[in-house]
Design brief:
- This protein is mostly helical.
- It contains 9 helices and no strands.
- Helix 3 packs across helix 5, helix 3 packs across helix 9 and helix 4 runs antiparallel to helix 5.
- The relative contact order is 0.13.
């Protein structure tokens, strides 16, 4: 008997049964139909820790090879300073644009490597063994900060990020003021000279570089957790390289103070 209830009548019309009961084939089709639509796969492959490690080795490898070539061919400091300027420009572009372009980041590594190789040769010529000590010091700083971050001894918070960035801007400002003061007074403010003020400032710069490593580790972890695209690994590798170069230069300068005074 057909029901006069308008709700039932509307339901039969929507399912296409009309006034007829569903056939066994229709019931089977309803049973086999999925109750939900599976989500579409992501349009890109997400970043992993392995991606960052591989890109990091590629970037550091390009830097080390370029530094070794500059050392071996005894590149002049004039050429090295030119390479440093190019590296600075490429680094600023990669930083402000958050670029993931491999050519841009590897280009930075090559030009920075030429500068570091020539500069390291000059330091090594003045103080034998200082380059090896600086490399070991940089490696120890990296391993130490990785352990600190892994063990959650220091946690990266938004407040900490603001503090580190503000401290970096202040430190670079002081370096610029010291450079300008050096045009009128020998040694400028004394921030980059052997002495108590120079020791403290160099130690603070090394510590600041170590804090930047913590920010790099946090950026990598958050990128992996949030499913960042694979290409973001290049930006992470660039950040790590930038921090390691900062630490190496400051350790090299810090060691030169004490070795030259012996």
């Amino acid at each position: 008997m057909e029901s006069k209830n308008p709700v039932f009548s509307r339901s039969r019309q929507q399912t296409g049964w009309g006034g007829q009961a569903p056939t066994p084939d229709q019931l089977q089709h309803m049973y086999d139909a999925p109750s939900y639509t599976p989500p579409a796969p992501p349009a890109f492959r997400t970043m992993t820790i392995d991606d960052v490690v591989v890109r990091g080795f590629m970037t550091l490898g390009a830097l080390v090879v370029a530094a070794g070539a500059a050392w071996y061919f005894n590149v002049s400091m004039g050429v090295a300073i030119g390479a440093a300027i190019v590296a600075l420009v490429l680094g600023l572009i990669a930083s402000f644009k958050q670029s993931t372009n491999p050519a841009l980041i590897l280009g930075y590594a090559v030009f920075e490597g030429v500068f570091l190789g020539a500069l390291s040769r000059v330091f090594e010529g003045a103080i034998s063994g200082i380059v090896v000590q600086a490399v070991l010091g940089t490696a120890m700083a990296f391993a130490g900060m990785l352990a600190v971050y892994t063990l959650r001894i220091v946690r990266v918070t938004p407040k900490m990020v603001k503090f580190v960035v503000a401290a970096a801007i202040a430190a670079l400002g002081l370096v610029l003021v010291n450079l300008l003061a050096g045009l009128f007074v020998d040694g400028g403010l004394g921030l980059r000279e052997a002495g108590p003020l120079g020791y403290v400032f160099s130690a603070a710069m090394i510590l600041l570089g170590c804090f930047f490593l913590l920010l790099d580790f946090d950026a990598i972890e958050q990128g992996v957790k949030q499913g960042a695209p694979e290409k973001f690994a290049w930006q992470c590798a660039f950040g790590l390289t930038l921090s390691l170069v900062w630490i190496y230069l400051e350790v090299l300068r810090f060691l030169s103070y004490f070795t030259s005074s012996d």
